[in-house]
Amino acid sequence: MDTLTITRYSIPVKGVKKKTICHFSDVHLTAYDDLSTPEEREKAMGDTQGWMDTRRFFAEKYGYPTGEAQMADSRLQFSRLLALANTADAAVMTGDVMDNVTPGNIRATEAGLASLQVPFIAVCGNHESWEMLPDGMLLSQMKQPVFAVDLGDLRLVGVNNADRIITPEQLAQVEALLADGKPTIIALHVPMLTADNYAAVYGCGEYFRMNDFDGCPPENDRFRTLVSAAPVVAVLSGHLHFQCVTEIANGVVQYGVSQGITGNVHLYEIGE
Questions:
Q1: What letter would DSSP give residue 20?
Q2: Considering only CA atoms, which of 101, 167, 172 is closest in space to residue 131?
Q3: Which candidate, 190, 235, 232, 243, places its Cα nearest to that of 212?
Q4: Is the Cα torsion angle 77, 187, 122, 43 positive or negative in sign?
Q5: Bridge-partner residues for 253, per DSSP?
Q6: pLDDT averaged over the chain?
Q7: What is the pTM of this model?
Q8: Cβ pair 262, 70 in contact under 8 A
Q9: Which helix (H) or strand (E) holds 41?
Q10: Residues 6 or more apart in contact with residue 127 via CB below 8 angstroms
Q11: Which class for 34: exposed (0-12), middle (13-18), buried (19 or more C-beta within 10 A)?
Q12: Per-residue pLDDT reduced to its tens digit, 54-94
């Protein structure tokens, strides 16, 4: 896995048998295949070239390398990340696996998810237009408002905040899930603004945060309060295209992973 940039974290949690969670985000697949129409193929090739420039922009802005491994095709990066995920106990994808919802990207994403041999959570990103995602597929969980996976003594909960909004229904669902006290990891695409990450995130603009913006619903702040205490043990996010790891409150940390399109990934060793 020397083609990936792996950052490791240890999260001690009493009562949880030690396990490894693989977390990546923002792969921005721009895929086409033999089933793609000429128009779809042309668009994918254009999007691919655009992301060569965009990922380089983010990497250079935040001090990440831009060598051959980092500039590999998004489909190759996705396969590398999935291979690493298969060495863990579970995988968490925090949005923008696809750059947009096209038949080629759907097929590539579905094939990738089908290759996983471990439980996974995949949440919707702002590029994936949740209302356009198909039903009846592995990737269909991305369009669910809240989706939970039980790992026995640990729970993974994906929350769709791609529109930067937490609805009253989502808030109630998450609150109900947390009521039993089981240690829980929350996964979402757009990170929460906190006192610790304010300097790094606020200046990126409203587009890059899910609270403290004009028209922000009260549920967003209630959600932040809800997930900043036990039984939540960590919040995982993406979207920023740079690594941003900061405390929310009460010792609960939000782990924002950098862009998967350049091979960035987090491995968390959780438990005791």
A1: E
A2: 101
A3: 190
A4: negative
A5: 247
A6: 97
A7: 0.97
A8: yes
A9: helix 38-62
A10: 28, 95, 96, 98, 99, 100
A11: exposed
A12: 999 999 999 999 999 999 999 999 999 999 999 999 999 99
